Amino acid sequence: MSEILVLVEHVEGQVKKVTLELLTLARKLGTPSAVWAGPGYSPDAKARLAEYGAEKIYLADSADISDYVVAPKAELLAQLVSEKSPAAVLVAATAEAKEIAGRLAIKIDSGVLTDVVGLQDGLVADQSIFGGGVNVQSRVTKGTPIVAVRPNSTPVEAAAGAGAEEQVSVTVSAAAKGARVVDRVKEEKGARPELTEAAIVVSGGRGVGSAENFSIIEKLADSLGAAVGASRAATDAGWYPHQFQVGQTGKTVSPQLYIAAGISGAIQHRAGMQTAKTIIAINKDPEAPIFELADFGVVGDLHQVVPQLTDEVVKRK
Ligand SMILES: Cc1cc2nc3c(=O)[nH]c(=O)nc-3n(C[C@H](O)[C@H](O)[C@H](O)COP(=O)(O)OP(=O)(O)OC[C@H]3O[C@@H](n4cnc5c(N)ncnc54)[C@H](O)[C@@H]3O)c2cc1C
């Protein structure tokens, strides 16, 4: 089986869920090899990668890789592509990894596909474009395909791989040291789960009405152990921070349950949540487009419905 390189996304030594998705996808196409770039590798990380099918783990854990912005990772992948001749390189469709993919494509003279939501035999990619309104199938026709896959587009499945480690030494070029990382600020994290990885997401839109009113969305989320999301109308109004925006220009979520309160269901919002397993909409307008997508709908004023729902959830716990 041909080797598929998977660039690992990790934070403080923890492998991110999207990497497990990429490994799951890679297993369908060939033999996955994880590429660990930067410090933080640990036996736990190895166990996690092997659990999801990494046959090999290429380790480039020097600080040089992470001390400079993006370019060293592209050089590392270019070196591995030239040494190992993999069938494809998979990265997450995050802002950083898409830039790595673009730089890698130039270096190895290959085609790159971004915002991919599925991969079929022959490395035919399903791409979700125009804000999720259109799906197209695409294939790289030149060089080693580089594919950036959207987080939360693939269900993860464990299947053990050998996890054989291989140290890779990379000499980062002077050109790749053009932009040094001078500081890292840890984002304040509350008790809620990470939005893109949460099993339940409760989102509020313009119908919430104000920043203060978002507390009712937060209370419902906390009663369910959920993450809080918001529509762009709500984040643009300054009612909720931008990093919680769900949609085409925000985060893509794919939880088991998505509750949309006071959100109309614009195509750009749907682009970020339409793969949720169950969708519940709360909206006072029975004609709101979100109801076309919803599995369950409540027509009513969210300021009454949401607190009542929270009370019921709390009572039943
Ligand atoms: C290039 C581009 C990118 C975009 N990216 C995104 C994106 O990433 N994410 C995103 O969300 N949007 C995005 N948008 C904006 C998008 O088009 C919509 O404008 C936005 O999603 C609307 O947000 P909303 O549903 O909260 O507001 P509205 O469309 O104004 O809907 C508010 C809803 O709340 C309901 N409501 C009002 N009061 C109550 C109440 N008391 N109780 C119950 N229901 C109530 C109303 O009936 C209505 O359906 C983008 C737009 C563009 C052009």
TrEMBL record:
<feature type="binding site">
    <location>
        <position position="283"/>
    </location>
    <ligand>
        <name>FAD</name>
    </ligand>
</feature>
<keyword id="KW-0285">Flavoprotein</keyword>
<dbReference type="Pfam" id="PF01012">
    <property type="entry name" value="ETF"/>
</dbReference>
<dbReference type="InterPro" id="IPR001308">
    <property type="entry name" value="ETF_a/FixB"/>
</dbReference>
<comment type="function">
    <text>The electron transfer flavoprotein serves as a specific electron acceptor for other dehydrogenases. It transfers the electrons to the main respiratory chain via ETF-ubiquinone oxidoreductase (ETF dehydrogenase).</text>
</comment>
<feature type="domain" description="Electron transfer flavoprotein alpha/beta-subunit N-terminal">
    <location>
        <begin position="4"/>
        <end position="185"/>
    </location>
</feature>
<dbReference type="GO" id="GO:0050660">
    <property type="term" value="F:flavin adenine dinucleotide binding"/>
</dbReference>
<dbReference type="GO" id="GO:0009055">
    <property type="term" value="F:electron transfer activity"/>
</dbReference>
<dbReference type="InterPro" id="IPR033947">
    <property type="entry name" value="ETF_alpha_N"/>
</dbReference>
<feature type="binding site">
    <location>
        <begin position="231"/>
        <end position="232"/>
    </location>
    <ligand>
        <name>FAD</name>
    </ligand>
</feature>
<dbReference type="InterPro" id="IPR014729">
    <property type="entry name" value="Rossmann-like_a/b/a_fold"/>
</dbReference>
<feature type="binding site">
    <location>
        <begin position="262"/>
        <end position="269"/>
    </location>
    <ligand>
        <name>FAD</name>
    </ligand>
</feature>
<keyword id="KW-0274">FAD</keyword>
<feature type="binding site">
    <location>
        <begin position="245"/>
        <end position="249"/>
    </location>
    <ligand>
        <name>FAD</name>
    </ligand>
</feature>
<feature type="binding site">
    <location>
        <position position="206"/>
    </location>
    <ligand>
        <name>FAD</name>
    </ligand>
</feature>
<dbReference type="InterPro" id="IPR014731">
    <property type="entry name" value="ETF_asu_C"/>
</dbReference>
<dbReference type="Pfam" id="PF00766">
    <property type="entry name" value="ETF_alpha"/>
</dbReference>
<comment type="subunit">
    <text>Heterodimer of an alpha and a beta subunit.</text>
</comment>
<protein>
    <submittedName>
        <fullName>Electron transfer flavoprotein subunit alpha</fullName>
    </submittedName>
</protein>
<dbReference type="InterPro" id="IPR029035">
    <property type="entry name" value="DHS-like_NAD/FAD-binding_dom"/>
</dbReference>
<dbReference type="InterPro" id="IPR014730">
    <property type="entry name" value="ETF_a/b_N"/>
</dbReference>
<keyword id="KW-0249">Electron transport</keyword>
<keyword id="KW-0813">Transport</keyword>
<dbReference type="InterPro" id="IPR018206">
    <property type="entry name" value="ETF_asu_C_CS"/>
</dbReference>
<dbReference type="GO" id="GO:0033539">
    <property type="term" value="P:fatty acid beta-oxidation using acyl-CoA dehydrogenase"/>
</dbReference>
<comment type="similarity">
    <text>Belongs to the ETF alpha-subunit/FixB family.</text>
</comment>
